[in-house]
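User: Please predict structures.

Assistant: First:
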Amino acid sequence: MKNGIHPKLNPVVFVDGKNEFITRSTMTSTEKRDIDGVEHFVITVEISSATHPFFTGKQKLIDTAGRVERFNRKYNRPAGK
């Protein structure tokens, strides 16, 4: 590997409310937290895989069947053509 071309990976903890994900990232912040003797940067996120509706199974399904009918009505096309 070439020296000086790779970004520095830092230990970080991503915080989403009460959920925390400890990993490494190129991101930094002014807030730091000591976890198991290692100083981690704290990155606050609004949504993560622990709270996103797609991953939690609480996703709302959108009625897509009505979209075709609205398109046909808008452009005066008979259904099925």
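Second:
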Amino acid sequence: MRIIKTRPRPKVSLPLTALIDIVFLLLIYFLLTSSFVQRQGLELELPRAVSGTVVRAPFTIQVRRDGEIWFEGQKTGGPELVNLLREKLSSAEEKRVLIEADRRAPLSAVVSAMDAARLAGAKSLSLVTEKPPGP
């Protein structure tokens, strides 16, 4: 009978300390470089739509419940809004405007905001909605 000598197998171990350090550094990096979007501005109750899509635009016009029109944190309207938008859109690459209108805002105020954006040279208009709650 022949005796076969077996060598002990080398033990493999992962350097978990280094791995944990790298994961921790990545976590810190992503936390510091991420930005949490927080809408600032007027308190609006947006209309709800199921078929909405996500659109980004450099400029937003807000229409309040009482029909007031706001642009970049100041109350405006009429020719003043057209001039402000024309000035902003002239230097912008993307000539897109979002309109955030409260669901109880008068239709005439929303239409005048849309009209002002078109007169100022906006190529695309989008109405901001929110998704209805549910599954």
